[in-house]
Design brief:
2 domains; two-stranded antiparallel ribbon; Beta-lactam/transpept-like; penicillin binding
Length: about 140
């Protein structure tokens, strides 16, 4: 998903981190699974995770501009999509998407407040902490 990598964008973006030296520490490995321990994620990073899940498990390089147009709306330059990595196979990605849809659409789902009538929405609450006004990613 691009953790431990930086990206060349026309804005300041911190580097997200995922610990690489915890393979022998089962407790630390388990804690990272729900965002605890030494996991640090930027908003850009979490957008890449959400987009990768929505894109059938394929993470794209982030970019800020799709195309540049002239005053007459003619396309001067277009920027191509570039694959960063394939992180989930189709079957696993489909299962994860369904769980995220259920989290929004199921009665009592943790993200049920994000439901939009007539629109399929997938979501995941964004914190393992118990706090007021914590951020979410959808």
């Amino acid at each position: 998903f691009g953790f431990n990598s930086s990206f060349d964008l026309p804005l300041v973006s911190g580097k997200s981190t995922y610990p690489t030296n915890i393979s022998n520490d089962l407790a630390a490995t388990a804690l990272t699974g729900f965002g605890q321990g030494n996991v640090r994620a930027t908003p850009l990073q979490m957008a890449m995770v959400s987009a990768g899940v929505a894109n059938d498990g394929t993470v794209m390089y982030p970019r800020m501009i799709d195309r540049i147009t002239g005053a007459d709306l003619s396309v001067i330059k277009e920027f191509d999509n570039q694959v960063y990595s394939k992180v989930l196979d189709h079957d696993l990605d489909s299962q994860l998407v369904q769980m995220m849809v259920d989290d929004v659409e199921a009665s009592g789902g943790a993200a049920s407040n994000a439901a939009i009538p007539g629109v399929q929405v997938a979501g995941k609450t964004g914190t393992a902490q118990n706090g007021e006004d914590q951020p979410y990613t959808l």
